[in-house]
Amino acid sequence: MTIEEAPRQPNYDGSIPQYKASAQQPAADIASARFHPLSIPNTVSTTDAKRDNTASTLPRTLATRTKVAIPRQRVASTPHYNRRVPRACSSCRQRKTKCSGDTPVCRQCRELRATCSYPEGWRDRTKKKVESLSEKVQDYENLLKDLAGVVDLSAAERIRSLLDKHGPEADYSSHTSQSQSATPQDDLPVNDVPSSPSSIGSLEAIDRVEEDINRSGDARATGYMGKNSEITWMQRLQREAGQRSKGLPGSLEPGQDLKTDDALALHAVNYHLDDLEISVPGPVHLYAMPPREVADHMFEAYLTTVHPFFPIINKPLFSAQYRTFFDTAAQPGDKWLAILNMIFAIGAKHGHLIDAPWRGDVKDHLVYLTRARILSMNGDVLFSHPDLQQVQVEALIAFYLLASDQINRAWRISALAVRSAITLGINMKSSSPTTPNLSKEARYRVWWCLYTFEHMLGVMTGRATCIQDGVCTSPFPIPFEEDQLQEPGALEVLTDTTLRDKRINNVMASAHIRQMPFHPVNGKDASHHSGARDTKWIKNLPVNYGLCYLYYCDLTVVVQEIINKVYSVDCVMVPWAQIETRISELKSRIEIWKSNLPTGLDFTSKEDNGPDILRCKLNLALHYYSAQITLGRPCLCRRDARQKGNNPSFSHELAVLTLKSAQHMLDLIPDEPDALQLYRIAPWWCILHYLMQAATVLLLELSFGTVHMPEEEKNFVVLSKKAICWLFAMSEQSIASRRAWQLCDLSLRKLAQGMKYDLSDMPFYPYTPEPTSTISSEPPSGHPVSHTVSDYWGPQMEYPPESIPDAPPPGVDHQTYQNMSTEDLVESLTAEAQESYFPYDPISGEFMRSFFPPSNENENWEY
After folding, report:
1. Which of 94-103, 288-297, 460-469, 793-802 has the highest mean pLDDT?
2. pLDDT tens-digit map of 721-744
């Protein structure tokens, strides 16, 4: 009880004691009265003393017996926790006891030595719930965006409307023109009318054919060319250069000048040779063989330059069969002979390109092709069920046609080979217990030959390949050559599929490529994040052709995704922002591929290597830069001329990447042209395609006024001259190279006319200003060329020339061979093969048992 709370007792004078301090009394006095209750004589105020003077005469003993209120003393005791804590810990809640709320451990839990944890507050729970729901909504939106690109038109429109309703984003707003939705001009201001309704780098009209392909033989020979073909790029370049030569900006659009449209039709800017025939008139000796020395040179040329990147045959097995064929009187079946003739045709073609001293007549590769066609591609065989050898024959014929610049014909035969392979299930992973592991590996390589070849044709023609997503489960080839497959390191991954996936299939850049999202979460700033890859094993392998081919296949899968997700027909319905997003993701995959390369295959390192490693590096480098050019080509357009601000757009960055890739590609070859050396080291069957990609991209940038890299204009002119000089040097051995040189040289001269470039150092030779389907047979250098139109297909060739270096087949003497007609020769050589016209499987080795004489019957030709 305090002083204020004590009951007031009347004084003896009848007044009430004034214990309450006045307003003027200091607080310290009050405190003194409260905490020192025994010092009461000083508590009587002066006023009270004056008032009570009359009482001073009272006996002093009475004054001393006056009752004084004594406040209750405070005692030191355990404090009570009467305050309410924000939340109790989980242990106190469970025990239903009052929690002290101390952190990190409350008093009760500390005394009981119990685990103390406080649950989240409602604010934290609400925040996390909102974050979780936001993440779910974002996932649902991304899923809807993915579905919008694959569903039908009505469903896609519903999805876009829903996204616009609940989250207005410019990327998914409806567009008045569907054909312009996939162009880089989507984000141009409304009042900024582009100079060209179909931008240079646009994907517009990707779903349409802009000319009648069936109107003439030349048009049919060229066929349709898509947006990712350099033929289509050349068509645009010719329009741009024509306007520049007149001092006019922009380009002449289709439909504005019918005469110009006809002169710049696809077949007029096509440098390939599909308009020329590939057969020789008159009969050929069906079972004739070249001399052994010439055959060895052609066979070796094929194995050295082609087989490492197109392992369609089993090299050790077929080489043994080849030697046995020439060393004995063995009589193989027609399809094995067709394979051999196609190898000769490809080797002979290469021999003419490098001016090899052993090369035969200029028409010899056509003779080998004709034999193979009769042996394996006649009407009866085409209507028969395919086998493994038929797949190999068709693939080799398609490869030869590509090497001969007959890409339209190669396109058709390649599709036939792919269909035959899928019929036999070669595209699938084999779990057959009766098929040896070596045979499985050989078939896997056959499939990847078809896949990579079909992809290359798709890039060159701009057409959709016949290998769609999801049809291939065949694992990648192991990084060893065929003659190394019996070594312990190769057998380890060959026999253990789990280990094979861990060390090879799952560490490639294309792993899980089919699950790549169409629209990554971070948009065009997205980067690919995949699980950790253990590339230590594969990077420590010694460099060999098998390792090189593995990485070649890996990059091919990535580039095929570029075709599917950027150049496919359904991309016309996809807004440009989404196309940029896809390009960003694919760009990151290409960089992952490059970072995964072993040190021995790193083509950016400046090391002196032998011809084999140099050939590997050059092939991978050309493939890599070609992939980047294909990826960034849609962004290379005039749009950047309208770009405002200092920050470059994503499309501008990709356009710069495309131009730098073209520059790096041309930096791979010397400044001084040497066509023969290039054909010896480079992938000679497609080197013209790579050079035309780089040259066309650089010339297009010049035709735009160098809007992307204005500081590099002089350098681009120098690089364009370099590319044209190389095409000029290559034209001495190749008609297709001569056509390509004419197209590029004409374009550069038109640009120089309007932009005042100095071309005094450029080689000049008269040519037709407007390319046609046939050209003069005289070479541009004035020297005789080995390949001319009259030599190939002149009307005077009624019969095969006598100079064809044919020799009698093994087992037939020369005199008998000369006197035998073709019919007799066929009958004599097929007498023992009447029941089975093709008893040989080069992969399983079954043919070898029936191919060789009975004395060798017990020899094991299996793997």
Report:
1. 288-297
2. 999 999 999 999 999 999 999 999
